[in-house]
Amino acid sequence: MFRKIISIITLSILLVTTSPLSLLSAEGTGYISVRVSKEGSDSLLPCRGWVEINNARYYKPLSENCVPYDKDMSFSNNGMFKIEVPPGHALIHVERGKEYFPVNKEVLVTGGKVTEVQIFLQRWIDMAALGWYSMDMHCHFGADSLEILKQQSLADDVNFQPVLTVWNARRYKTIDYWQDSKENPVLMVDSTHLISFNNQEIERIGGQPFESVGAPHFLGLNQPVDNPQTHTWPADAMLCASAKANSPGCIIDCDKPVWGENVVTAALGLFSSVQVCNNHYHRFSDLDMCCGMAELKTSAKEDQNWARLFWQTNHVYYMFLNCGIKLAASGGSAMGVMRLPLGYNRTYIKVEEPFSVENMLKALAAGRTFATSGPLIFFTVNGKECGETIQINSGEDLTLNISARLRSIEPIESFEIIHNGKILKKLDLQGNIPGPVLKEEINLNFKPPKSGWLAARAVYFNQNRFVRQAHTSPVTIVVDKQPLSSSEDARQLIGWINRLIKIQKSENRYRTEEERKEVLDIYMQAKQFYQIQSKNVPDF
User: Fold this and answer.
1) How far apart are CA 426 and CA 73, in angstroms?
2) CB of 210 within 8 A of CB of 260?
3) Residue 530 lies in a domain
4) 369 by DSSP, 3-state: which?
5) pLDDT tens-digit series, residues 119-162
């Protein structure tokens, strides 16, 4: 049974004594003035924070350089902020993405005075120095302001921020940057942080189970995809095919894999990645199955009672992989829509070449990624990285050497090797407290019985006992040149498509019979793909 473990990390803090401020208009009000730097430096360090007093959170500083985000009740800043608060014991929280220790500092605020605080953030790992760059697949906040986008890129330490300039019929102001810089719509914030603007989301969700269409994210477009004329037509697969035709190098992420038509678009090979760490996993809570998602039966006992979206997400991702559909693991937060900051859920991408948008998208398409809400995983099979394929013959030594390394500043429940959707090896880490960094490894020799895939994941609870994970993209294993296949999973995916077909035949779902036929024809193409996998599985 999972157990909740909370760890507070204390870092180097310099507290300067309070001083009177003659300009204060009321002695019943106090102020906190904070300066944040990287440990060992006097330079200001952009970060995110808030202040808590008497169970109330304050996140709207007086400083002009700060940008509050109401949904997360936090604010980004350039490394310095001043905030008005009532007197009493205050907790200052400061964080900077996943690679720095967060700081929780208690101070006493006195009415009529300013409490000055110097905070030093300590980096515990430098992923970019190791060739891994972070990316948030899903960002809306700040899309009307270059200055906000630049600040949150640094404050949340997200190396690549592909802002969704077009979202359904809405076009943010930064689309001007895309249109004015068509050759290279990229803004370099500094040498390790950049923003791109030629990105779009088309979201058509809602209704009863299976009735949603989808919410694909298009990254690296040459031109925007035409907005759908209705909620049901054209099919997502048609939109994705159009995007690929006009922007051959674009990446299409499926957002959550459980949207209604994703089973179709995935079968046709139009998706590049799946958000296994997605925007329904909030900082302090969850959104569960909703909005017309496909609700499937899984073997996970937990799926029956709690965290259903978490287990369903992994279950559908594994079924796609088992049917030979290549999909990278990704992470996104939907800051601007959801109650979490940029990069709470993020994708790490291994870039062998110089850091650029082109190379990031190229590596993402190749599957050299892992997704995370916190922990970091380094995974290889026979020295091959995520996204690579190993070819072996049954007449040779089939032994594979699996190596997985976990690094985390949060307590972890389990560290696992996944083979074809099943746990091959599990480390139970309940009760292991990071000190201050948790370091665990799995080294395993394994002989695969047939073609398949291997990945690593770390499962944990956040402080409010909501399940979270880090998950790598797979390493594909091909034995005797046989394709990956799973008749069991193909059967369930065919059943999913049959549910969709029944829904599309309902009255008034389409404007014309021609539209209905066009969508159903696309569905049948996907169904035929799974029927080949399932070897003559009858209709459900």
Assistant:
1) 37
2) yes
3) yes
4) strand
5) 999 999 999 999 999 999 999 999 899 999 999 999 999 999 99
Residue 538's CB: how many other CB atoms inside 10 A?
8
Packing angle between helix 513-534 and helix 487-504, nearest 10 degrees? Answer: 170
DSSP string, 478-512: EETTPPP--HHHHHHHHHHHHHHHHHHTSTTSSSS
Token readout for 526 is 């996907």
| Token pair for 164 | 């969704």
Give the Cα separation of 18 and 31 in Å (integer): 10
CATH number at residue 334: 3.20.20.140
Residues 444-453 pLDDT 10s:
999 999 999 9
What's the pLDDT score for residue 305? 54
- Surface-to-core class of residue 148, CB atoms within 10 Å of its CB (0-12 exposed, 13-18 middle, 19+ buried): middle
> Do 307 and 383 have their domain in common?
no
Same structural domain, 171 and 61: no
Q: Domain of 448: which CATH number?
A: 2.60.40.10
Residue 4 lies in a domain: no
Reported as a pLDDT band with limits 50, 70 and 90, residue 227 is confident
Kindly indicate the confidence band of residue 534, based on its pLDDT and cuts at 50, 70 and 90: confident
- Residue 283 DSSP class: S
Is the separation of the CB atoms in 362 and 248 below 8 Å? no
pLDDT at 11 over 50: no
Quote the CA–CA distance of 413 and 137 in Å, as a whole number: 26
Token pair 């190229």 in the structure block, residue:
362
Helix or strand holding residue 326 (H, E): none
Overall number of domains in the chain: 3
Angstrom distance (rounded) from CA 417 to CA 477: 14
Answer yes or no: do 25 and 131 share one domain. Answer: no
- 42 and 96 share one domain: yes
Look at residue 7 and tell me if it is in a domain. no
* Residue ranges making up the domain that contains 34: 13-121
The three-point CA angle 38-44-47 to 5° equals: 75
pLDDT of residue 302: 52
Question: Sign of the C-alpha dihedral, residues 330, 336, 338, 344?
Answer: positive
Residues written for the chain: 540
**Which residues have a Cβ under 8 Å from the Cβ of 82 and sit 6 or more positions away?**
31, 32, 33, 34, 61, 62, 63, 114
Enumerate the H helices of 181-251 as residue ranges.
Answer: 236-246
Residue 139 located in a structural domain: yes
pLDDT over 90 percentage in the chain: 80
